[in-house]
Protein 1
Amino acid sequence: MIDALAERLPNALVSEKAETMSPRLVYLIVYGQNINAGTTNLSGAVRTAKQIMKDNQSVPIAFVGSRIQALSKQALIQEPIIDFGITNESAYALWNTLSLDTLDTQSLSNIKGIVCRDEVGAVSVREAINTYDK
């Protein structure tokens, strides 16, 4: 885990640290002091994701945060660097995602609680996870 804000890391160092970890997934948590800060902080997270993608092009990039949860499809359409986003019950959605053998569009199509692209790039919001039935 890298806390870029706490460590005051520039994007290049975040990318360098991430690369040394050989991640299966880069998961950016984009929140702020209030609900609107998730939108404001999204631009910085996108810059970080672009640096990571430039340096390590094979790793999928996922976002979670207020902007992704509120405007899921719009966020992915506007920011093609985001491979998928967590839309609800992030702990369950992340757990289910990391349980997959591969993080490709076909595998992600069966995960609830995310927004992602299909094989042709169309963005869709998957069914929400209902934890009340458990």
Protein 2
Amino acid sequence: MDSRNPSSAPLPATAVSSLARAHEALAEAALATEPAARYAAAHVAALRVTAALLAVRTRPAPRRRQRNAWTLLAQVAPELEEWAVFFAAGAAKRAAAEAGLSRAVSTREADDLLRDSGRFLDLVERMLGLPPQQVLSQLALPPARAS
């Protein structure tokens, strides 16, 4: 039995699909030339990673009040609460970026979010007992900028 995926059962198809889509969104972010597009794609990748984890850790329940993915993440994976707070804080910037506000995010913010989303994906995949994909090393990420 694997301590990271205690059931050692195969992942639900929705989780596998969400992880694949997260990888695609990170690749899209890495290729984006505009910071707003990079930021938005990186944030979407984090949402897809969250969807994968929720697919594994939650069961469908009768329709109740809709909750945001970041709130759900913090509830079902308390060890990821800091990540949930971090990504929730970036949701408004993502919305502004998707709305076409080119100055909504800086190049540094977009690059940092891309790296952070890749780290989040790596962490969740390890938690699910998957072999490391080393997402960050596979993407042509710009080097971290000094503060």
Protein 3
Amino acid sequence: MPLEVKIRRFSGAVSGALFAISALAAGAFVPASVAAQTGEPIKIGYSMALTGGLAPNGRSALLAQKIWEEDTNAKGGLLGRPVKLIYYDDQTNPATVPGIHSPGLVFRLAQQRHHT
């Protein structure tokens, strides 16, 4: 199996695992009674390779994540709250990832945007 295929498979697996962990963590840190009362969406932010060499895998993973978002919201959301996915293109460039995931930047961008 060529190295590029192995890297793509690994990238897709890591992306899926990180997405699942972030979705679970988003609900774990908010008391259920407070969360249900506010009705505010649970925002899950992450970066994806939507352009560059890993873009085909990133777009496939994003499609799956959007389907999850729609299904979850159709069933009442998480803890009674809707889910909003906020994703950013990391351009398949490791140098862009720290900037996307810096705490202040992610918070500010999450306040400004709903979807990319």
Protein 4
Amino acid sequence: MLRSIALVPVLAAAACVPGYTRAEIVYAEPAEYVYEAPPERVVVVTREVLVQRGWVVYRIEQSGPSRVIWARRGPDEIVRVFVTPQGERVAVRGLWEARDRGRHRGWERRGPPREVIEDIDGRMKEH
């Protein structure tokens, strides 16, 4: 019994450490752009745009039918672009987060990466 009581403060402290914004929150927001293109094409264009803007793409994961492109710029900035098929269309959402080195020492949501998403839109309209 004493061991389980001693673990309660440790578990409570671990639960308070903020991490990345959950994907469910991003998916609940309206899509910024919708295209009639294969998801693979949107992923390729997104990766090219991120690299051109100085981001390092370090993960492309598949989450069900959706793709999530993870990129970082230095140790303190993360961008995630969510590519979600919707029938014949593909919805694109983005999220920019920065490390909070203040009191909470986690990741702070900065909103959508407007420049990246607008560049993706421009490239998708060219083709």
